[in-house]
Design brief:
Elements: H1 3-14, H2 18-39, H3 43-54, H4 56-73, E1 81-88, E2 92-95, E3 97-101, E4 106-110, E5 112-113, E6 117-118, E7 120-124, E8 127-135, H5 138-153, E9 160-164
Parallel strand pairs: 8-9
Antiparallel strand pairs: 1-8, 2-7, 3-4, 5-6
Helix pairs in contact: 3-4
Length: about 170
């Protein structure tokens, strides 16, 4: 079967004109091209960045971990540092409410401003429950790192563990 007979067969069965079939073919090719272009590149990076940006709690924990890594690596003798944090709870956003009391009932409504945005009253972040730091100079600077981290995060020094990085051969 040649392309011409295939085309004529499709036109006859679907009741389409040659022009309509051409438009459908162009639309399908365009969709295929957009799909190929859209899926190229680093999908893993795109997914991770979208996940972090769409989740404020993940963004908070990543930022806190990065800041802690940066500041710990600045302590004399530490060198490169990797930080792992553990948390309890989740991020909670509390919005401003308008309370109206009547004789037998109490009604609370979230306060909305102009463009349908609620007024944020308070954000409670997850509580840091533990810190692990792996660094180049772990043994000699352990006490200073523990003191710095427990002070910055306002947690007990028993919740901070510092260890040496494995020496690569």
């Amino acid at each position: 079967m040649t392309l011409k007979t295939l085309r004529d067969s499709i036109i006859q069965r679907a009741g389409l004109s040659k022009r309509q079939l051409l438009y459908i073919g162009v639309a399908l090719l365009s969709a295929l091209l957009l799909f190929i272009i859209g899926s190229s590149g680093s999908e893993k990076e795109d997914i991770e960045s979208k996940d972090i940006m769409s989740d404020p709690a993940a963004e908070y924990t990543k930022r806190l971990s990065d800041e802690l890594e940066y500041i710990v690596s600045k302590i004399d003798g530490v060198g490169n540092a990797d930080v792992m944090l553990t948390f309890r709870g989740s991020m909670v956003s509390e919005f401003q409410t308008d309370v109206s009391k009547e004789e037998l009932s109490k009604t609370e409504k979230t306060v909305i401003i102009g463009n349908k945005e609620a007024i944020l009253k308070e954000t409670v972040y997850p509580e840091v429950t533990g810190v692990l730091i792996v660094c180049d100079g772990g043994g000699s600077v352990k006490e200073r790192v523990i003191n710095a981290v427990s002070t910055v995060l306002n947690i007990s020094s028993s919740k901070v563990y510092v260890t040496n990085r494995i020496k690569e051969r």
